[in-house]
Amino acid sequence: MGVVNVTPDSFSDGGLWFDPKLAVDHGFRLAAEGADIVDVGGESTRPGAKRPPIEEELRRVVPVIRELAAAGLTVSVDTMRAEVAEQALKAGAHLVNDVSGGLADPDILRVVADAGVPVVLMHWRGHADHMQQHTTYTDVVTELMQELRPRVDAALAAGVDTDRIVIDPGLGFAKTWDHNWTILNRLREIVDAGYPVLVAASRKTFLGELLADPTTGERRPPAQRDAATAALTITSALDGAWCIRVHEVPANIDAVRVAARLGAET
Ligand code: PMM
C-alpha cells in the first residue's frame, strides 16, 4: 500500500502532495512502481496535530480519489469520519482505512457495511492532540489485542463481513518507541488472531530515533528512513503481515519479494 497524504502537515512528507494535481500524479507513480493499493488521506495524525474541518478533509481527498479510481487504481481512503468514507466510496474508493478502528465516528462501520467494502481497524486510544498521554500498558501486545477485539465485534455487529476486516496494531499511536519494537518483535501473535494484518512502520519517528546521528544525537529525517522501513518490511512479511503501508514503494516491493523467497524455504 502506497501512501498519498493530501495534507500540509504529515510528519513523513508534510505538504509535498497537498496540491491535488501533485497528489494524483504521486498516486499514479506509486501504482506504477508496484503498489497494489493507494491510500489517500486528508488528515494528519502525527502527534499533536489539529483536525481539519470535515469540509476541508472532503475537499482534499474526494477529487484525488475520484481521479485515481477512475483510472483503475485500487484506492483506500484514510479517514476517521463516516461522511468522508461515504463520499470517498461514492468517488470510487475500494477500502476504508480507519486509524481509530471505528471509535472516532462509529457510523463509519455502517457506511463500510452498506458498501460491502473491506475496512482496516487500527488500534487507537484517542486523537493526535492527546494520544501520547495514553501510552501506559502492562503488556502492549496483549492489551492492544484486547482493545482491538471489541472494535472487530463492533464492525461485525454493524454488518461488516468477517472476511473484510483487517487489523493494525497502530505503530506510534498511543505507543512509545519501545512499544513499537515490542509489537514488531511479537507481530506473529497479532497475525495468529486470524485477521489479515496491516503494518505501517514507514518513516515513523522510532526509526528516526534508532538511526540518530551518533555524534550529534540528531534524529534521522523522515525521507532518510526508507532503508530501515524496508528492513521492517522483510521481517513483517515473514511474520505473516497481509499489507505493508509505505511512502516509498520500490525498495519495499523488493523487500516483499525477498521475504516471499525466504518464506518459501520454511
Ligand atoms: N499511520 C499513519 C497514517 N495512517 N493508517 C494505518 N492503517 N496505520 C498506520 O499506522 C497509519 C495509518 C501515520 O501517518 P503517515 O500517513 O504520514 O504515515
Structural description of this entry:
The protein is α/β, with parallel strands linked by helices. The protein has a single domain, classed as Dihydropteroate synthase-like (TIM Barrel, Alpha-Beta Barrel), CATH 3.20.20.20. 43% of the residues lie in helices and 11% in strands. The protein has ten helices and eight strands. Helix 2 packs parallel to helix 3. The longest helix is centred in the middle third of the chain and has 19 residues. Bound molecules: pterin-6-yl-methyl-monophosphate.
Question: What is the element layout, followed by pairings?
Answer:
Elements lengths: L1 E4 L14 H14 L4 E4 L12 H17 L4 E4 L3 H9 L4 E4 L8 H9 L3 E4 L17 H19 L6 E4 L8 H9 L1 H5 L6 E2 L5 H6 L15 H13 L4 E2 L5 H14 L3
Parallel strand pairs: 1-2, 2-3, 3-4, 4-5, 5-6, 7-8
Helix pairs in contact: 1-2, 2-3, 3-4, 9-10
Pterin-6-yl-methyl-monophosphate (PMM) binds next to strand 1 and strand 5.
